[in-house]
């Protein structure tokens, strides 16, 4: 699909990576709190669109279910 950016591929990533949240005390959160953080759509800055190349250059932790 062509758009204003042509045929570029974008991924959605967390502004604060899940691993950083974990290192900053998310390990003390309940499972429900970690899931809410990982899937938060209420804050427009929480998830950001990044190019596929940028996203794949960062190691990603597994999404907690």
Throw out a few tags for this protein.
disordered C terminus, elongated, two-stranded antiparallel ribbon, 3 helices, alpha+beta
3D structure, described in words:
With 65 residues, the protein is of the alpha+beta class. The chain has one domain (10-56). Helices cover 29% and strands 15% of the residues. Strands 1-2 form a two-stranded antiparallel sheet.
Topology:
Blueprint: E1 10-14, H1 18-23, H2 31-38, E2 47-51, H3 52-56
Antiparallel strand pairs: 1-2
Helix/strand/pairing class, anyone? alpha+beta
Strand percentage lies at 15-25%
Question: How many domains?
Answer: 1
Q: Kindly state the number of beta strands.
A: 2
**Helix and strand sequence:** EHHEH
- Shape assignment: elongated
Main sheet overview: 2 strands, antiparallel
Mean pLDDT: 76
Low-confidence stretches: 61-65
Helix content: 25-40%
* Biggest β-sheet: strands ordered side by side in the sheet: 1-2
Report, as a whole number of angstroms, the end-to-end distance.
31 Å
- C-alpha Rg (nearest Å): 14 Å
How is this structure best summarized?
With 65 residues, the chain is an alpha+beta fold. It has helices at 18-23, 31-38, 52-56; strands at residues 10-14, 47-51. It has one domain (10-56).
